[in-house]
Every structure is written in structure tokens, then in C-alpha cells.
Amino acid sequence: MPHVRILFLIFTSILLGVSVTSPTTSATSADLKVEEIITRHLASIGPPKARLAARSRLAIGKAQMTIRSRGTSEAGGNAVLASQANKSMITMKFGVPDYPYEKVGFDGELVTAYAIRPGVYSTLGGFVKTYPSILKEGLLGGVLSSGWPLLDLSTRKVKLEYAATKKINSRPVVEVRYLPRGGSDLSISLFFDAESFQHVRTVYKKTVGAQMGPSVDQSASQSESRYELIEDFSDFRTENGLNLPHTYEMHYRYLAAESRYYDWVITLQSFYFDQPIDNKDFNVAN
């Protein structure tokens, strides 16, 4: 009987361990309110004084581009990220004849992008021109931008919804859906590290259903297509009192019968704050 009792106690302890552990995990994920996620996220960037002091931001570094379709092509160059209040600009210069730049910008009124030729935009530029809200909302660039909407939600008419707890590269993250004012054709999700609450990823998705062809056979050959832009942020270090990512990646995916993949990796090396930036620099059309 003593032996049976010991087994019973061990079995009971295991059950109790499970019942205690599960609610703890739930409390840090599903039970976590969006307001608390945002509060912790802001604290991860830096103290309020430092966040308010950085009225303009300029980050300079190196850029690496990879395109994969039927083949693979690569190019390296320089990158500049600039922002001031709700204005922002991202430029990558590669010096490749048929793909010299990626440029997108918002001057507070107009979203612009680099045109390879009249009416034909670069890959990232075309996506931003189609979905300008990602720049107008201050989403593109994450916390690297002074226009990052979570810095001042009181003036934004957006809706944030807790979605799930997932994993990115084996690390638990909290997903929050971002619903812009006026709605959007894009599905937008923000991901925060479940421990530090640093913003580590944004995912923009758009799915287009299969189109009807002129005949039954041609209609059957059609398939849906999906557009996806993923921003990844890592290597967080302190700059001017702010904890900012020094590696910024963008991954564009066109997933269809013939898929295309574009990857840009920016390694930031120098940061400057409160430098005057001419408003015309945020218009990149020229």
C-alpha cells in the first residue's frame, strides 16, 4: 500500500503540475490584453522622454538584394531610411542598370515610388503604390520610423485585435491584427516577441481569387494568387536612448502558378536624430 500511495502522489503531482502550468502560459498569451501588449512594447523601445525626443530619424547602412524566379540574381548597395513626424522614406541603391533603385516615400500627403520607366514601378514601389496605407499609417519600417503608429495611438483611428501566440525561429511571439481606419484590402499582422515585446515582424497579405477565363478549359487552368510582404527586425541595440533594430529585412512573395521572390536585407550602421530633413526628400518620384 505505501508503494501504491507513493505512485498515487507522484501521479497527482504531475496532474497538478499540468494544471498550474497551463493557466500561466495562457495568461501570457490569450489572456494578455492588447493594451498591455502595446504598453510593454513601448517600454521595449525606450523611456517616454527618449521616444518623444527623437522627432526625426536618419539611418544609413548596406543593402543586399536577391531575386528568385526562374533563376537567381543578386546585387549589393547602400540604404537610407529617413523619417520626420509622420513622413518617411526608404531608399536602396543597387547600381544595376535594369534595377538601380528601390525608393518609396510619404511626404505627409502623397505616397511616391521610384519608376523604372513612366508608369512602371520597382517591385516594392509597385506594392506600396497599390497599398499606400502601409506608408501613410507609418507601418513600413516599424520602430525605425518616427511615424510608427503605436507610438501615438491616441491620434490614430485604428483597431488592434489579439490574434494568437505563435513561433518565429523557435521563439514565441504574440500576433496582433492591425485594422487601419477606413479598412484595407490587406490583411496586416504585427508580431511581438513574447518576452521582450520588441516588434519583430509585420506581415501584409492579399489573396486574389482565380479569374474566369474565356472558356471552361481556360478557367480550369486559372489559380488564385497571393501577394505577401514580410518585414523582419532583429539585432536590437541602443541608439540615442532607443532600442532599435540594426538588421531590417523585407521579403516580397508573389505566389501563383509562376511564383517570384524578392528579398532585401538592410544592415544599419549609423543613426542620426533630430537632424532637419527637407520635406522634398520624402517625395521620391523624381
Total strands = 14
Rg, Å, rounded = 23 Å
- Large-scale geometry: globular
Count of helical regions: 6
Can you tell me about this structure?
The protein is of the alpha+beta class and 286 residues long. It has a single domain (26-282), classed as outer membrane lipoprotein receptor (LolB), chain A (Clam). Helix content is 21%, strand content 46%. It has 6 helices and 14 strands. It has a 12-stranded antiparallel sheet with strand order 5-4-3-2-1-14-13-12-11-10-9-8, covered by helices on one side. It has a two-stranded antiparallel sheet with strand order 6-7. A hairpin with a 2-residue loop joins strand 2 and strand 3. The longest helix has 26 residues, at 2-27. It is globular and about 45 Å long. Mean pLDDT is 84; it is low at 1-28 and 212-221.
Give the structure's gist in a few sentences.
This protein is α+β, with helices and mostly antiparallel strands and 286 residues long.
Keywords summarizing the entry:
286 residues, alpha+beta, outer membrane lipoprotein receptor (LolB), chain A, two-stranded antiparallel ribbon, disordered N terminus
Task: Map the helices and strands.
Blueprint: H1 2-27, H2 34-45, H3 48-53, E1 56-68, E2 72-84, E3 87-96, E4 99-106, E5 111-113, E6 115-117, E7 120-121, H4 123-130, H5 133-136, E8 159-168, E9 171-179, E10 187-193, E11 199-208, H6 216-220, E12 225-239, E13 242-255, E14 260-273
Antiparallel strand pairs: 1-2, 1-14, 2-3, 3-4, 4-5, 6-7, 8-9, 9-10, 10-11, 11-12, 12-13, 13-14
